[in-house]
Amino acid sequence: MAAFTEDESFVERFTALQAESIDEQRDVFSRRFVFSLGDRYSEVFDLATAFTAACAADEGAETLSMAGAANFLQQNGKTRTAIQRRAELKDVDLNQDGRCSFIEYLLLHYKIMILEEYFRRHEMEPDVEMDNDGVGVTGVGERLVQELFSVPQGVDPELEKMMREFSIEHAKRKAKIAELEAKVAAGGVKGMAAKNTLEQLMLEDQSSMHAIEARITAAVKKAVSKANKELAAKSIAADADAEAKRVAGRGKLAEKMAMFNKRVSERLSLGRK
């Protein structure tokens, strides 16, 4: 499949993003695809938490070995054969380091969602199999990366603010859990107290985060509705313009025919004389 860019700027940006923290990769992805994610927005944050834990259990880095990535795919409902997993992981391994960063995993996890945006933006029919959750579909890695760095339309400042707030609340909770887990590991009286606090925290309904997520979902629906109305208005305007041009074309044709008929009549009159 042809590369999407000759200067490889997208690949360079993607490689740079992989050097960032898992949380930064999470935020870049969730902001870019906020409209497509909709009420699945918080799912990306849950995946980031699970990916961090998987990395710690794998080799302790912020990336997974290919074996670890294959297991993570399976654990998150992305069932593939061993051959399919290897091929799909290799497809997004654009820096060819033989490891899987979180952003690479997200490209696989949401492959079909991203490809739908790609084909829609390019106004083209899908040329790959879009059913069955993209299982076995390869040769699309560069397209996925290109779409990641394509600017989403309609993200207003208020929605950006909500997404930042959600990230902040998530970071606060994550930091609090890490602090309590460290105290529990240290043991003693403080450790027991921390264990109780941690258990309570894990049982909390996370109302503040849920409230922000609900606002994000509402804002996304509003933005999508607005975009659809604008698209419909543009379509109506384009149809009206096309019709006006057709009418004008008919008028010009009629005018040319009238002039032609006039010249013919004049020549016939001269011939009679």
From TrEMBL:
Q: Which InterPro entries match?
A: Calcium-reg_actin-bundling, EF-hand-dom_pair, F_actin_bund_C
Q: Which GO terms describe its molecular function?
A: actin filament binding
Q: What biological-process terms (Gene Ontology) are attached?
A: actin crosslink formation; parallel actin filament bundle assembly
TM stretches of this protein: none
**Annotated signal peptide:** none
Against SUPFAM superfamilies, the record matches this protein to: EF-hand
Calcium-regulated actin-bundling protein C-terminal domain residues: 160-243
Q: Name one GO cellular component term.
A: cortical cytoskeleton
Q: Which Pfam families does the annotation name?
A: F_actin_bund_C (PF18060)
Tell me what this protein is called. Calcium-regulated actin-bundling protein
